[in-house]
Structures are given as C-alpha cells and as structure tokens.
Amino acid sequence: MRILVIEDEPILNARLRDWLTKEGYRVEGAQDGENGLYLAQESQFDAAIIDLGLPKLPGIEVIKNLRNQGKTLPILVLTARDRWQDKVEGLEAGADDYLTKPFEPPELLARVKALLRRAGGAAKMDMQFGPLMLDLNGQKALLNQQELELTAFEYRLLEYLVRHRDRVVTKLELNNYLYPVNDDPDSNVVEVLMGRLRKKVDPDGSLQPIETLRGRGYRFVLTHA
Fold first, then answer.
1. Which of 31, 88, 125, 214 is the most exposed place for a label (fewest CB within 10 A)?
2. pTM for this entry
C-alpha cells in the first residue's frame, strides 16, 4: 500500500517515512504543499498524511484541492496547533482524522491503519473471498488456507484490485500505483505481473477472480464473504 507524507520539517518527514516503511508501506514524501499536491494528482495513493502548516501551499488548500478533484483517499492531518478551531477546519476541508504534534509512532500507525481499514470497507484486517483470503496486516494471500508465494509486486497488485473491486482499474493506474512517480516501467510489466498472479491465485482456472475488460482494464470479481 502506498502512503503520501507531506511534512515540511525534514527530520519529522524522514521519521514518518521510516516508521511507515518499517510497517511494510511504500512511502513517498514532499516538503511543501505544491509538490505534495502534484504527487497526489499524478499518482495513486491509499492514504495521505498532511501537515497543515506547509510552505508554498497550506495543508488546508492541498486537502480542498484533492477533494474538489474527487480524490477520496483517507487523509490524516498533522498539526502543531492545539486550537480546536484548526482541527475543525481540517476536518471540514475534507480530512478524515487529525493528530496533534508531538505524538508517538504507535499512535500515528494506529490512526493510519484505522483509516485504511475504513477506506477498504473492512472492520478487520482479513478479507475473505471464497477460498481466497487476504491478510492485510501480514500482507499475504492464502488459497484454501495455504499461503501463496507472491512477490511484493504481485501482492500489491492483488491488494489494489481487491480494494478497488467496485470498479474497473486501468493498466495505467496500476502502473502508477506499483512504480514511483517519474519511473517509466515497460508497458508490458503489468500484463506480465497479472499473468503470474492469475496462475498463483487460480492454478486450475476454476476461480477466475480477475476479469479482463479489453481496452479498459481489470476488475476483481469475487464476492466478499
């Protein structure tokens, strides 16, 4: 899962990215509002952590821009301010939760995990689809209770499709999710990964969990138990 951190304090920015990376997330960071907004517009993220007191473009404006553009990713606001009006302003702009500085890493991680669970429509970290189960906390997939040997990219691909199972996901969107901004992977990479993933999650072809819509993209079609 990918998380965007927009924090102008270099030390805190680095610590946030380090904490989240150690938890298994893929993290990208920005130190001003303009760059952070650009990253959020150009790539797919599962959540964002945004400081309110940003240079170039205030955090409130970043949030408003994202919401006005239809971006629904969960947003956690960071603020050094303890005035309740600032917290309310952040929530009214479209943030989902807030955290006042200073804070401890476990509290931040707990807030992020709670936002991701709510965004995924799951009250727990396991998602069951017939014989296929995703353990979101352990970042692994099981078929008939046997853990599948998925690469990191294959797992990320499967999880993204599952989390967005209510719609068609384009190949470009998957490229943007799997690879960092400004990277230029070969156009066939997603197709190769998709082929390998299908063989692992559906070795006998009976499950057919991933539908291909020619010229449009892919859709996860199994029903959530």
1. 214
2. 0.60
